[in-house]
Amino acid sequence: MTTPRENGQTPVDSEEEILVETRELSKHFPGPRPGLMRRRAILRAVEKVNLRIRRGEVLGLVGESGCGKSTLGQTILNLYTPTSGQIFFEGEDIQELRMGELRSLRRKMQIVFQDPYSSLDPRMPIGQAIAEPLVIHKMASGSELEDRVSELLQTVGLNPGLRNRYPHEFSGGQQQRIALARALAVTPSFLVADEPISSMDVSIQGQLINLLEKLRRQMGLTYLFISHDLRMVRHIADRVAVMYLGRIVEIADCDELFDNALHPYTQALLSAVPITDPTAARTRKRIRLEGDVPSPIDLPAGCVFQSRCPLVQPECANEEPELRQMGDGHRAACIMV
Fold first, then answer.
1. Is the pTM of the predicted complex or chain greater than 0.85?
2. What confidence tens digit (pLDDT) does each residue in 59-73 have?
3. Whole-angstrom distance, CA of residue 280 vs CA of residue 273
């Protein structure tokens, strides 16, 4: 499948091109109760997120730990029930679907978690773990099921002869391949990759990224690739969304964002990415953010980035910036842009 990034064109969204869309999507969790007679605080993990993910593309989602990236990915899959807003998959509002329809939809939307070992049953051989979703969705049985498991193991680069081994007998990179095979078993069209390489060493990271790209081409997959590793995101993503305290503060085509970041938070993130050119490294200005990160339970009025922003203005305390169009699909939420 040829992606917008590969053909060098700036895509124009149409309803047919959009696979996943969120509209004003929010997810709140109950926080600690400050007192016996006082109302429980609310943790605003995801707040009014609007995203459109095109068929066949990789949307990278980046931001600091705790900013809500994983919560957003799991809410899109309806693993968390949204507090408000809408989620559309192939044009259908998934919250309006009946239980049977939602179960059928889950075949098309899968996730690979950050820690592969915790997502695999340690008492279950890997062949059985991969076969389980096929059995649940009644997609294969008998010899056909055995053949499908072998095919999936080969697809992710593992020997089918290892099917009777248990997860603890594999390395972290192999466990992630097993988790990926399990996710691919039901032939999804959309995959949330939630920090899939963060616990791997650099060589294994490269292998897994190459595998994800290969599977994307072969199977026509669409990814939401969640990561804090901006170098890997630049390698695999077509577009990148930057998240801060539950909000999307900037989104653009990958090269555009890395070469022309507009939001001060994005600029600070990019300034911390290691580069191999020693001359460029010496001349590059590192942006160090001062101030404290606000608590998601007690967010300030106005811009949530104001306490750390080097460009802060008095009006930032009162005005919550919208994600505004800056041209060619580049959007940023900052009144100074």
1. yes
2. 999 999 889 999 999
3. 12
Q: Would you list the domain boundaries of the chain?
A: 18-108+188-332
| Burial call 206-228: b when 16+ CB within 10 Å, e when fewer | ebbbebbeebbeeeebbbbbbbb
Instruction: Walk across the sheet containing 190-194 and list its strands.
Output: 109-112, 190-194, 222-226, 58-62, 239-244, 247-253, 331-332, 324-325
Record the tokens describing residue 32, joined without a space: 């600690």
Return the CATH class of domain 18-108+188-332: alpha beta
Blockwise average pLDDT, block size 10, the chain, 337 residues: 46 72 96 73 93 96 93 95 95 88 88 90 95 91 92 94 95 92 95 88 86 93 94 94 96 95 94 75 77 86 92 90 90 91
Are the C-beta atoms of residues 181 and 208 closer than 8 Å to each other? no
- Give the β-pairing of 109-112 and 190-194: parallel
| DSSP strand pairing (18-30 vs 84-89) | antiparallel
The candidate with the shortest Cα–Cα distance to 47, out of 249, 227, 334, is 249
Q: Which letter, b or e, does each residue of 157-182 get, where b requires 16 or more Cβ atoms within 10 Å of its Cβ?
A: bbeeeebeeebeebeebbbbbbbbbb
